[in-house]
Amino acid sequence: MIEKIEITTTSGDVHNFKKGEFGVVAIEIDELRGLIEISYGSTEGGKKYVFIPLQSVEKCEFLDKEINTPTDTTIKTDSTTAKTDENY
Questions:
Q1: Which distant-in-sequence residues (6+ apart) come within 8 Å of 85 by Cβ?
Q2: d(CA 57, CA 8)
Q3: Which one is predicted more confidently, 80 or 50?
Q4: How far apart are the first and last CA of the chain?
Q5: What's phi and psi for 65, nearest 5 deg?
Q6: Which one of 26, 27, 74, 85 is most buried, by most CB atoms within 10 A?
Q7: Residue 36 neighbours by CB distance under 10 Å
Q8: How much is the pLDDT for 3?
Q9: Cα–Cα distance list, 11 to 14, 27, 32, 56, 81 (Å)
Q10: Does pTM top 0.90 for this prediction?
Q11: SS3 of 80, please?
Q12: Higher pLDDT, 45 or 30
């Protein structure tokens, strides 16, 4: 879940969005649609969205917050085994 994002556009403009500030409820990067989506909370006028096309983004920095459950105490490791060819 993206907590905050700084977007620099190809025109040189810099935009900052942070979840919880100014009504921002969600920040998502949709690579399939080629958009950065900023969702604002509901108001009497409806719900507000900001869509920024990825092709107009020069640089994008964001903080991705991982959700950890305190009850999960398992240790996850990645291991690989190499196969050898015994018939030389």
A1: none
A2: 6
A3: 50
A4: 50
A5: -95, 125
A6: 27
A7: 24
A8: 92
A9: 9, 22, 23, 8, 48
A10: no
A11: coil
A12: 30
**Residues present in the chain in total:** 88
Is residue 60 within 8 A of residue 81, CB to CB? The reply is: no
Q: How sure is the predictor about 33, in pLDDT bands with cuts at 50, 70 and 90?
A: very high
Bridge partners (DSSP) listed for residue 33: none
Report the CATH architecture of 2-64.
Roll (2.30)
Which structure tokens are listed for 14?
């810099």
Q: What is the mean pLDDT of the chain?
A: 82
Judged by phi (left if over 0) then psi (alpha if -120 to 50, else beta), residue 75 lies in beta
Instruction: Identify whether the C-beta of residue 58 lies closer than 8 Å to the C-beta of residue 52.
Output: no
Percent of residues, the chain, with pLDDT higher than 90 = 58
In our burial notation (b when 16+ CB lie closer than 10 A, e otherwise), range 46-61 reads: eeeeeebeeeebeeee
